[in-house]
């Protein structure tokens, strides 16, 4: 017969496995969003990957608690320089996507280009 400690161990391992699967899904979603944003901006995602930078709990637009994951990545415009990008997911939804695009009119100047920011409620959206 299975003891209480064995059941607890099995449930704990199952919970860890589910958390890991959810983290991998989120990272793949962030990578896909990064690839799409880079393609749309005419730049190249470097290393074809995103790196998890921060995880915390945060409330969504409806006030529910969700896991907020922030990923960082690098991209290039010319193949010679690296520029920073950032993607955040709130639960399974994109919350923020940012590319620090270099300004073509002045060397060394960086333009802050927010591509998406859904952490604030849209005033035009019906609730």
What is this structure, in a nutshell?
This protein is α+β, with helices and mostly antiparallel strands and 127 residues long.
Protein described:
There is one protein chain. Strands 1, 2, 3, 4, 5 and 6 form a six-stranded antiparallel sheet that branches. The longest helix has 38 residues. The chain has one domain. The chain starts with a helix and ends in a 10-residue tail after the last strand. 15% of the residues are buried. It is built from one helix and six strands, in the order αββββββ. With 127 residues, the protein is an alpha+beta fold. The C terminus is likely disordered.
What is the number of beta strands? Answer: 6
Radius of gyration: 19 Å
Shape: elongated
Taking the sheet with the most strands, its summary is:
6 strands, antiparallel
Distance between the termini: 52 Å
Count of discrete domains: 1
- Helix percentage: 25-40%
Mean of the pLDDT scores? Answer: 83
Helix/strand order, N-terminal first = HEEEEEE
Number of helices: 1
Beta-strand content estimate: 35-45%
Q: Find the structural class using helix and strand composition.
A: alpha+beta
* Poorly predicted ranges: 105-113, 119-127
Q: Which descriptors apply to this entry?
A:
1 helix, elongated, 127 residues, 6-stranded antiparallel beta sheet, alpha+beta, disordered C terminus, 6 strands
